[in-house]
Each structure stands twice: as C-alpha cells, then as structure tokens.
Amino acid sequence: MRPADGSPKGWRVHGTSAQGYRHLREGTPCQDAWRCRVTPSGLVLAVADGAGSAPYSGAGSAQVVQLATRAFEPVVTAWERLPDARARKEQLTEAFHQVRDAFLRWCQGPPGLYATTLTVVVLAPGWLGQLSVGDGLVVVRTDGGTGQGAAEEGAGAPAGNPIGGDPAHPASYHLLPRAHTGSEYANETVFVGSPTALDQLRVDCVRDEGVEGVLLSTDGLTHALLRRAPSGPPLPHDAFLGHLFDRLARPDYEHDEEERRLKAFLGSDQITRVTGDDKTLLWAIRT
User: Where does the PPM-type phosphatase domain start and stop, copy by copy (predicted)?
Assistant: First the structure.
C-alpha cells in the first residue's frame, strides 16, 4: 500500500501489513494499521496493533493512526525552532493526550472493545521524536559516523553521509523505545484506552543530524527484527534491517514490485513458523 500523502522530497516511505496465519485460519481480518502524513517540514509515521481479544480492535487501530498523524503534525518543525529535548518530549506527550482524548470520544463506550497499541515517529530537520504505548518498536538508522549518539536523548552528532556513503563506516541501527524496567506492568500490554496508558508512555527525542532512516513495526515481527544478545536487552538484527533499508534506497525501487516481495516474505514459512500474529512494517529512508 502506498502512503496516502505520498513521500516527501528527500525521503522514500513504504508501509505494508500482512494478516497473520492465526487470523487467516480463523477468518479474522488483519487488525494492524499504519499511516503516514507528509508535512512541510517532514513526516509523521504511525503504526498500531489491535488486540486479538478485542472484537473491534481492527477499527480501533485504523482510527488511532488517523488521529495520531493529525495530532502530531504540529510537532514536526526543525530543531532550531525549539532546541530543547525536554520541551520536545512535552510536545510529543501533549499530542498523545489529544489522540487519546479523541479516541475515547470516538469509542462511545468501553475502549477495551477497540483496544489497540500505538507507535508514532516524527521526522523533522535535525531531530526525530518517538512515542509509544504498548509493544511496538522503532529502529533508527544512522550513518556510520554517529555511533551511539542516536540512541541518547538530546545527543548531538555530525552531519550524515548520503546513503551508501563511506564503506568504512556502515550504517548503525538503534532500537527505540527501551522497555520499562522494574514495572508492575512489565509483562502486560498496555493499550491507548487503558487506564495506565499515560503512566506507561515511552517518549524519546533523538537529536542527530545523521539519521538516515527509521522503521516502525508492530510486535508480530519482533523475532525477525531483533536478535537476542548473550546478556542484556535485545539488539537490532543489522543484516535483516540493512536489507530492508537498502532495497528501499535503490535507484530502481518500484513500489508495486517491492510490495509483492514483502507480502511473499511476510507470508513465508520463515516468518509464520515463529509468529502467527499480524505483521506491519512502515519505514522511511533518506534518498
């Protein structure tokens, strides 16, 4: 599926969702959703994962990504307009309040019937913002010269190289958000309409001129996108991510051809043997 607003100058965006085999077997439609909004200064990207146990979660996920791409649009301004990481995080949090309030009004009843997660990224000159509630994930791609700066709130980095730049400095991948530790909700998925949603928000402000790309995913692809480290938290699966981003950056990229390849891959035995869940990818790369 093509982004409704197209791709902005300087970026290429691709999004796709695939029905999980469990839903296919049960005759349940895909309950994931994604949406992209192009603004004068950048992008708003959003993905949502409707809860399998909620009867109308597919409608909930579709509604929440639409609300999010509208509410977060005013946040997409160049870093120099508001060069303060804490203030930027406050902007992101306020936008989520607007989304949640509008979502609860839209539900017109118990929000659990429409239960859905939400992951949002804003891309603007000089910075990237991320906000999530639930178990979605974000991977940031930076040029090889930026090191770990991309994963640190308010961190600075030198200007990036173009895609496919210095082979001696391959792209780096950084996982956001980092899971809460020691939380009583650590093993519980929180949804936009959950009473604990505001307490369980994860918000990041990445100050880095070297951001080359970003990928959002629902949890159905966690096993493909992340690899388990011998100790410590999971790490991005660099080889798989590099393949995705490099294909999107190709000069001969063609949307429909890439969509066919992705659909075939997401429905392959390689993926379905590790997850029966719906799967959504939404990613953008600087061109």
Answer: 20-146, 173-266
Q: Which fold has domain 11-286?
A: Phosphatase 2c; domain 1 (3.60.40)
Sheet containing 279-286: give its strands across. Answer: 11-18, 279-286, 211-217, 137-142, 172-176
- Give dist(CA 51, CA 34) in Å, integer: 15
pTM of the model: 0.86
- As a 3-state breakdown, the chain gives helix, strand, coil percent values, each rounded to 5, of 35, 25, 40
Predicted local confidence at residue 10, as pLDDT: 85
Say how far apart CA 224 and CA 236 lie, in whole Å: 9
Please compute, for residue 61, the number of CA atoms within 13 A of its CA located in the half-sphere on the CB side: 29
Q: How many CB atoms lie within 10 A of CB 236?
A: 20
Nearest to 123 by CA among 216, 194, 190, 30: 216
Q: Which residue in this structure is represented by tokens 């980092």?
A: 178
Domain spans of the chain, in order of start? 11-286
pLDDT at 166 over 50: no
Each as own residue / partner, the long-range contacts of residues 264-271 (CB below 8 Å, 24 or more positions apart, any chain) are 266/16, 266/18, 267/18, 267/21, 271/221, 271/224
Helix, strand or coil, per DSSP, at residue 160: coil
In angstroms, the CA 157 to CA 155 distance is: 7
Name the packing angle between helices 238-249 and 255-266 (round to 10°): 160
d(CA 225, CA 212): 18
Residue 244 structure tokens: 């995705």
